[in-house]
Design brief:
Elements: H1 14-28, E1 36-38, E2 44-46, E3 49-57, E4 64-73, E5 79-83, H2 86-89, H3 109-113, E6 125-126, E7 134-139, E8 145-150, E9 155-160, E10 163-168, E11 175-176, H4 194-204, E12 216-219, E13 222-225, E14 233-239, E15 244-247, E16 271-273, E17 295-300, E18 303-309, E19 315-324, E20 336-345, E21 350-355, H5 360-371, E22 384-386, H6 394-406, E23 413-416, H7 437-445, E24 450-454, E25 458-460, H8 466-474, E26 488-490, E27 493-497, H9 503-512, E28 525-529, H10 556-576, E29 588-590, E30 602-604, H11 612-627, E31 633-634, E32 636-637, H12 646-656, E33 662-664, H13 682-695, H14 697-710, E34 715-716, H15 718-721, E35 735-737, E36 742-744, E37 754-759, E38 765-767, E39 773-774, E40 779-784, E41 792-795, E42 798-802, E43 818-823, E44 830-837, E45 849-857, E46 862-867, H16 875-883, E47 888-895, E48 906-911, E49 921-928, E50 937-946, E51 951-954
Parallel strand pairs: 22-23, 22-33, 23-24, 24-28, 28-29, 29-30, 30-31, 32-33, 43-47
Antiparallel strand pairs: 1-3, 2-3, 3-4, 4-5, 5-21, 6-7, 7-8, 8-9, 9-10, 10-14, 11-14, 12-13, 14-20, 15-17, 16-19, 17-18, 18-21, 19-20, 25-27, 26-27, 34-35, 35-36, 36-41, 37-40, 38-39, 38-41, 42-43, 44-45, 45-46, 46-51, 47-50, 48-49, 48-51, 49-50
GO molecular function: alpha-1,4-glucosidase activity; carbohydrate binding
InterPro entries: DUF5110, Gal_mutarotase_sf_dom, GH, Glyco_hydro_31_AS, Glyco_hydro_31_C, Glyco_hydro_31_N_dom, Glyco_hydro_31_TIM, Glyco_hydro_b
Subcellular location: Endoplasmic reticulum
């Protein structure tokens, strides 16, 4: 299991300990006042920006530190609060030890994380009414948002429609550790008898700030020099009236975040964001994992708000919930819960975006506008991936491929871990085991399958290896604190790390992926970036020393959480340029991530265990990734470490089909567990689960398109779909797929033969396979789930597209016909969408796609297909539509079909653009009666309408 001694607690992290102590002092002092005040004489407001200077009063009261403040009001309805430190900003400080580090606070995180949404509001306006001690700004749509800035002590209340939603510095925990010169204290010799006297004097003095880790800090045999001294930044952010907060991945926790100050069921440690290689991580813990997204949202009935803490340094977040009872003397008032959070980062600016919602959809869209939407993947990337550490030879790869075909199990991608390389040197192949990679690629290409090869950021430091030779010669490696190439230890042994903060390093990295450089790779080769936290086996906390230096002179402490994104981005850019004229969407998986990583690929939850608890935890972890802006996520199916039982492996596949990124993976010491290995009945059951994923690929692909255009998560928790349902806010063991009303509840308990599914609304829900009806709002419903049964319900009111013909890979389904499943709501209506493009190129950006809305009007009993593609006709669009001209709807299934259809034998189908003689064609209708709790249903077979055309089916 995880070695806790390798990773810091808050008490072992100097800046976290200091700021927690600061919070304790504030809480214990009845007269506590924050020492930060906004000087009203410095306030200026122009063009949607408010600026001023905050003065920090030091102990004694005479000296003040100047902190430049900017509050920017954005056209999107967001507010951005930035606080810097004047002395560091001007470079008016002295670094210790001849350090080559930058003097400023790190101010470049936005260049990696932010890609849009920064247009300043032209409608933001100062409230002209004189309000002593406050400055008020109205902003947002129709001025519905208001920022109330208190001058002394400094604080901000963010209101929507006159109601306070978010508060800054309510508890007075704002703390920006200012620069001060190190004072070398003389070592005094203690005379006999003086020690006891000194201790007695110390007891009588007021407690002083702990300076023990201001200038250096040791942990695990490593000492971190701190040339800039203490520079942490902290702020308390409160959400009055909000009981549930979500987000800040990555942690192995529930969706609704627990409190962190001890007590029954609570954590005693803050949530930590510090990307790290955590070996066999434990469940139900605020401990850091591989990635960091400092985006938190708070939710209550009728409102969702949030904050994005733009800081790339190590960060700790305390969560406290305070229950406020109703006043018995105030009729009609209810009790409520406030959530108070305390954010603490080691270095950098205070830079916070405030989201006032009011819906979950508003937050995911606005966050996506800021940091970028999910990259639209190639269609193969959302199908099934088969991986282990390691497929040992190229013949092994081909053998696995053949066995999938032999057992008629669909899959799209096979993966190679580090053993494929020659002596752990990336961009090489082991000459003894991968003798002919070209032949291997051609073998896979016969059925349009792909290969993913791992390439990590550590480069083996050895003689005669062209990659390390070039890295050193060009000076593109990360440096140590003295400015020399940093050398650490990873899989290859002695290694150096590519510094992808350097544009020149990205340019060089691109060249390594070209086919004539990475010999043996092919157009169906894609990439996996692992270990990019970065993982350094002999480094502090299994990562890089914080006083290492990156391009531009920034210390590693400033940029640590962004490091994985820079490497992931460099590989994405490289995959775009492998061959001139061959532009395909890249697929690059990453383990480490930050806000913005969603723009360049997928992630997975790292080195989990083959245990039921890890299967259970994977659902809230992947859901949390989705609402936090990185929905292309998944967990290793079967568990990375250990050997799952056949039951666990089967149940994990049945759950894994609901991960947006769906990959089976296993450790080098585990037994083989490809789906064909377990034997009957497990292989057949797993195969059925895989076929269900493939059958629903049209729905998954459309959900990805929605994520790529609106920021919406691909799999969605109950609160996102039902934001008014208070009972369901914390439900995180079931999920909805896209906008399709498909409600899945994976089995995560050993020996279970049923699951309890929570239904938030009173719409009818139908079993996906046999149309059993479930209905009743705010209740748990028992759904049978023997081993061979996958609990999946369809919510009334939706139309679900699918492809029903089993194929060996998704590419072979490209021109297959579609089936539409029409699930009628209680009013007899339904609608849904379908998005289709070539699944490979960027032509969709020029309109080369099909996007249709299907609607069933219960009153008129007419089903229609209408166009959602608003692009003008282009050559690419016309060519794509021509290529899809023969792709049709082969079946329409209506669930909950009305009884009056019992005697109806046909419907009338008409299609736009059809010849006069084919404009109204009768097509047969079959109706099936309800029985034993199952709904009635009907089928229209082969209406002979094109998927890319407008059409109408008249059931009246």
């Amino acid at each position: 299991m995880v070695k806790h001694e390798n990773f810091k607690t808050c008490d072992q992290s100097g800046f976290c300990k200091r700021n927690r102590a600061f919070a304790d002092t504030a809480a214990a002092t009845s007269s506590w006042t924050s020492p930060y005040a906004l000087d009203p004489t410095t306030i200026k407001f122009k063009d949607g920006k408010l600026s001023g200077t905050i003065l920090k009063t030091l102990s004694g009261g005479d000296e003040k530190v100047r902190l430049p403040l900017t509050v920017t009001f954005l056209e999107s309805g967001l507010a951005r609060v930035t606080l810097d430190e004047e002395k560091r900003q001007k470079g008016d400080i002295v670094l210790r030890g001849d350090s080559k580090a930058r003097k400023e606070r790190y101010n470049d995180a936005h260049t990696w994380a932010i890609v849009g949404g920064l247009d300043v509001s032209q409608g933001a306006a100062l409230n002209e009414k004189v309000d002593q001690g406050y400055t008020r700004v109205f902003y947002g749509e129709a001025g519905k948002h208001e920022a109330v800035i208190q001058h002394q002590p400094f604080g901000i209340e963010f209101k929507r429609d006159g109601v306070t939603q978010v508060k800054f510095n309510e508890r007075g925990l704002l703390n920006m550790e200012h620069w001060r010169p190190k004072v070398e204290k003389p070592v005094e010799e203690k005379k006999e008898g003086e020690e006891e006297k000194k201790e007695e004097e110390t007891k009588q003095e007021e407690p002083k700030e702990d300076e023990s880790t201001w200038w250096d800090e040791s942990f695990g045999g490593n000492t971190d020099s701190k040339p800039r001294g203490p520079e942490a930044v902290a702020l308390d952010i409160s959400f009055p009236g909000y009981e549930h907060v979500f987000g800040i991945p990555e942690h192995a926790t529930r969706l609704s975040l627990k409190t962190t100050r001890g007590g029954d069921g609570a954590y005693s440690e803050p949530y930590r964001l510090y990307n790290a290689d955590v070996f066999e991580y434990e469940m139900d813990s605020p401990m850091t994992l591989y990635g960091a997204i400092p985006f938190m949202q708070a939710h209550r009935k009728g409102s969702t708000v949030g904050v994005f803490w733009l800081n790339a340094a190590e960060t700790w977040i305390d969560v406290i919930k305070t229950k406020n009872s109703a006043n018995p003397l105030s009729l009609g008032t209810k009790g409520h819960t406030d959530t108070q959070t305390h954010w603490i980062s080691e270095s950098g600016l205070l830079d916070v975006f405030v989201f006032l919602g009011p819906t979950p959809q508003d937050l995911t869209r606005q966050y996506g506008e800021l940091t970028g939407y999910t990259a639209m993947p190639q269609s193969f990337a959302i199908a099934y991936h088969q991986c282990r550490w390691n497929y040992v030879t190229d013949e092994d790869v081909k053998d696995v491929d053949r066995k999938f075909d032999k057992f008629k199990i669909p899959y799209d991608v096979i993966w190679l871990d580090i053993e494929y390389t020659h002596e752990k040197k990336y961009f090489t192949w082991d000459p003894l085991t991968f003798v002919n990679p070209d032949k291997m690629h051609k073998h896979l290409k016969k059925r349009d399958r792909k290969l993913v090869a791992i390439i990590d950021p550590h480069i083996k430091n050895t003689d005669g290896y062209h990659v390390i030779d070039e890295l050193k010669k060009k000076g593109l490696a990360v440096k140590n604190k003295d400015g020399n190439d940093y050398e650490g230890w990873c899989w290859p042994g002695s290694s150096m790390w590519v510094d992808c903060f350097n544009p020149a390093a990205i340019t060089w990295w691109k060249g390594l992926f070209k086919y004539d450089s990475f010999k043996g790779s092919a157009s169906n080769t894609f990439i996996w970036n692992d270990m990019n936290e970065p993982s350094v086996f002999n480094g502090p906390e299994t990562t890089m020393p914080k006083d290492n230096l990156h391009h531009g002179g920034w210390e590693h402490r400033d940029v640590h959480n962004i490091n994985g994104l820079t490497f992931h981005n460099a590989t994405y850019q490289a995959m775009l340029e492998r061959k001139k004229g061959e532009i395909r969407r890249p697929f690059v998986l990453t383990r480490a991530f930050y806000s913005g990583s969603q723009r360049v690929g997928a992630m997975w939850t790292g080195d989990n265990l083959a245990e039921w608890s890890h299967l259970e935890a994977s659902i809230p972890m992947v859901l949390n990734q989705g609402i936090s802006g990185f929905p292309f996520s998944g967990a290793d199916v079967g568990g990375f470490f250990g050997n799952p039982s056949k039951e666990l492996l089967t149940r994990w596949y049945q759950a894994g089909i609901y991960y947006p990124f769906f990959r089976g993976h296993a450790h080098i010491d585990t037994r083989r567990r490809e789906p064909y290995i377990p034997g009957a009945p497990y292989t057949e059951i797993i195969t059925q689960a895989l076929r269900l994923r493939y059958q629903l690929l049209p729905a998954w692909y459309t959900a990805f398109h929605e994520a790529a255009t609106t920021g919406a998560p691909i799999i969605r928790p109950n609160f996102y779909i039902h934001p008014e349902d208070e009972k369901g806010f914390a439900v995180d063991d079931q999920l909805y797929i896209g906008s399709y009303g498909l409600l899945a509840k994976p089995v995560t308990k050993e020996g279970a033969d049923s699951v309890s599914v929570y239904l938030a609304d009173d719409q009818p829900y139908y079993d996906y396979f046999d149309y059993t009806l479930y209905q009743g709002a705010g209740k748990e419903h028992t759904v049978p789930a023997p081993l061979e049964k996958i609990p999946l319900l369809m919510r009334g009111g939706h139309i679900i597209p699918r492809r029903d013909r089993p194929r060996r890979s998704s590419a072979l389904m490209k021109f297959d016909p579609f089936t539409l499943v029409v699930v009628l709501d209680k009013d007899g209506s339904a609608q849904g969408t379908l998005y289709v493009d070539d699944g490979e190129t960027f032509d969709y950006q020029q309109g080369a796609y099909i996007h249709r809305r299907f609607s069933f009007d219960g009153k008129r009993q007419i089903m229609t297909s209408t166009n959602l593609n608003d692009h003008r006709s282009t050559a690419k669009l016309d060519n794509y539509l021509k290529s899809m001209a023969k792709v049709r709807i082969e079946k329409v299934i209506i669930i909950g079909a009305p009884k009056e259809w019992k005697t109806k034998k046909q419907v009338i189908v008409s299609e736009e653009g059809a010849k006069e003689s084919k404009r109204k064609i009768p097509v047969g209708l079959e109706w099936f009666e309800a029985s034993s709790g199952k709904a009635s249903w009907a089928v229209v077979r082969d209406p002979k309408v094109g998927v890319g055309r407008g059409w109408k089916i008249d059931f009246s």
